[in-house]
Design goal:
86 residues, 1 helix, globular
Length: 86
């Protein structure tokens, strides 16, 4: 299934960037579009058998020393804590 995600910026995110939940690959980025009004629209293709639960939010982070981006679905409390340390 498809999820759309609008963010202010998407450093390192491109087509085929992995989407994970609890460290497990659940999908990939299908498209990255710069919005005229500002921000970026990411289209995510999620495996049909993988569910995103209410209260889980996507966080963009780096997955390796090379700066490769990943999108990780985490509980919303974890996302708030992560933002404090960025």
């Amino acid at each position: 299934y498809t999820l759309n995600m609008q963010v202010a910026q998407a450093p390192g995110v491109s087509v085929d960037t992995p989407v994970r939940k609890n460290g497990v690959l659940i999908g990939r980025v299908a498209s990255v579009d710069l919005l005229d009004e500002g921000g970026v629209l990411l289209t995510l293709k999620i495996d049909a058998e993988r569910k995103i639960r209410k209260g889980e939010v996507p966080v963009i982070s780096t997955a390796s020393l090379f700066g490769d981006a990943i999108i990780e679905f985490v509980p919303s409390d974890t996302a708030r804590e992560a933002a404090l340390y960025e």
